[in-house]
Amino acid sequence: MKQKTSKTISKRFHVTSTGKLLRRHGGQNHFNTRDSGNTTRNKRRDETMSKADTKNIKILIAQH
Fold this sequence. Notes:
Blueprint lengths: L6 H6 E3 L5 E3 L13 H8 L2 E2 L2 H12 L2
Antiparallel strand pairs: 1-2, 2-3
């Protein structure tokens, strides 16, 4: 039987065309006024994952 994709992982991560893995910064929902401007600005950008984590997460996304 074919194994299903882990939907929670596929929603949290994005694979670029070059194979890099991107993720969002946490803590963006509320209480953002207490953050400094630099923190708020940095949370807007996606963060690239390390190579060690990328390998494991790609396996969970593909699941074949």
